[in-house]
């Protein structure tokens, strides 16, 4: 019986160990079950990179060349030789105006020229004859002077007749209207058979556009102009690849280059006019289209960017759902900048580079909720 205390102590130790093991097992199981019930949420860290910053300016497109085609003579429109909206080459015939009276005027002017030439030939011979007769005193000096005067008048009559012929020929030329350059021709504003009173004031027939290149006209404040000058001097920003967007999404993306800076600032508005030249190889851009030009003005060497789809909007503005160190959801107001590469958005204020933010399931999370974060790349 001397060994019973030792047996009792051993039994107590084993019992305590069993209880401790059971408690530890229950605690671990509880933590595991609790973690299993937390919602898995995709999160990410912001992307930090050097980004060229832009400011948007509205403007309207204008064809590189556009010109009203006009009638400059009176007469009936007797011919139209193009399909509305089609592309025509330089020098192609577009319209013809009834030209009978102008052909008659040209013939009359040519006849007057021939008469003037004949008169000049006679006056020339007469003058030389009078000069020879003067040598033998057959005529007076006054007769010679009169012959010389008649000769000079005949020469002037020839020049006048030549000018009349040229005018008549030019006027006749106005009866046929040609394309001044290649481009697309708008639907005419007149119809065949209409009488055109173009002699007094030119009458617009149609408009031709060469829109292989279009230009967006925008206005900027003078302070931004100084920044542009500095960027050009340092070659820190590319002004040959300026993003341009439109009210409707087009099949292709477009970029322009700065082609014109006005020589003066409008004192009434304090703004400066710029033109951005855009190639239009697909013919999608039309004169008069509304455009938004994203003009580069500075570089941010450490811009913070998040996925644009992860940003929410409410009455207070823009926000992100971020995570605390304990993985609880935090409603975080932010100030945003421009969008980059179609899907990333610059965040100016509200987070830093180490802030984890929720990227998906925004409608399933709420302020203060504890989640199981899954880090995405």
Describe this structure in words.
The chain has 377 residues and is α+β, with helices and mostly antiparallel strands. Helix content is 31%, strand content 38%. It contains 4 helices and 20 strands. The protein has helices at residues 4-37, 100-135, 141-173, 222-234, and strands at 40-44, 47-71, 74-80, 87-88, 93-97, 176-178, 183-185, 195-197, 203-221, 242-246, 254-261, 271-279, 290-307, 312-314, 317-323, 329-333, 335-340, 344-349, 357-358, 372-375. A 6-stranded antiparallel β-barrel has the order 2-9-12-11-10-13. Strands 6-5-3-8 form a 4-stranded antiparallel β-sheet, with no helix packed on it. A hairpin with a 5-residue loop joins strand 15 and strand 16 (329-333). Helix 2 (100-135) packs antiparallel against helix 3 (141-173). The model is unreliable at 1-32 (pLDDT under 50).
Task: State the main characteristics.
377 residues, alpha+beta, six-stranded antiparallel barrel, four-stranded antiparallel sheet, 20 strands, 31% helix, 38% strand, elongated
Order of helices and strands: HEEEEEHHEEEEHEEEEEEEEEEE
- Alpha-beta classification: alpha+beta
Percent in strands: 35-45%
List the uncertain runs: 1-32
List the strand order in the largest sheet. 2-9-12-11-10-13
Describe the sheet with the most strands.
6 strands, antiparallel, barrel
Global morphology = elongated
Helix content: 25-40%
Mean pLDDT: 88
Gap between N and C termini, in Å? 71 Å
- Strand tally: 20
**Over the alpha carbons, how many angstroms does the gyration radius reach?**
44 Å
Instruction: Please count the helical segments.
Output: 4
């Amino acid at each position: 019986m001397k060994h019973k205390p030792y047996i009792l102590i051993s039994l107590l130790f084993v019992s305590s160990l069993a209880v401790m093991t059971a408690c530890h097992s229950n605690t671990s199981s509880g933590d595991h079950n609790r973690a299993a019930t937390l919602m898995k949420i995709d999160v990410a860290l912001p992307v930090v990179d050097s980004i060229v910053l832009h400011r948007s300016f509205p403007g309207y497109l204008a064809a590189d060349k556009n010109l009203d085609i006009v009638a400059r003579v009176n007469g009936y429109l007797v011919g139209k030789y193009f399909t509305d909206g089609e592309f025509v080459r330089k020098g192609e015939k577009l319209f013809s105006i009834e030209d009978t009276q102008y052909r008659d005027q040209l013939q009359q002017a040519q006849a007057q020229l021939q008469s003037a030439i004949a008169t000049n030939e006679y006056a020339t011979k007469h003058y030389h004859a009078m000069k020879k007769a003067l040598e033998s005193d057959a005529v007076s000096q006054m007769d010679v002077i009169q012959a010389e005067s008649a000769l000079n008048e005949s020469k002037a009559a020839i020049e006048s007749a030549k000018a009349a012929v040229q005018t008549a020929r030019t006027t006749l030329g106005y009866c046929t209207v040609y394309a001044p350059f290649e481009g697309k021709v708008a639907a005419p504003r007149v119809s065949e058979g209409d009488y055109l009173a173009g002699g007094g004031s030119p009458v617009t027939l149609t408009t031709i556009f060469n829109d292989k290149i279009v230009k967006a006209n925008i206005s900027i404040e003078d302070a931004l102009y100084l920044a542009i000058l500095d960027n050009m001097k340092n070659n820190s920003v590319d002004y040959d690849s300026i993003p341009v967007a439109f009210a409707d999404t087009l099949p292709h993306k477009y970029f322009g280059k700065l082609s014109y800076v006005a020589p003066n600032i409008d004192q009434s508005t304090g703004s400066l006019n710029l033109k951005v030249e855009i190639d239009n190889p697909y013919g999608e851009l039309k004169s008069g289209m509304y455009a938004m030009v994203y003009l580069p003005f500075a570089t941010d060497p450490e811009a913070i960017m998040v996925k644009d789809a992860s940003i929410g909007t409410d009455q207070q503005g823009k926000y992100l759902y971020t995570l605390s160190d304990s993985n609880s959801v935090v409603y975080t107001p932010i100030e945003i900048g421009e969008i980059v590469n179609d899907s990333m958005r610059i965040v100016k204020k509200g987070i830093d580079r180490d802030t984890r933010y929720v990227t998906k399931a925004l409608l399933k999370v709420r302020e203060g909720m504890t989640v199981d974060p899954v880090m995405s790349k």
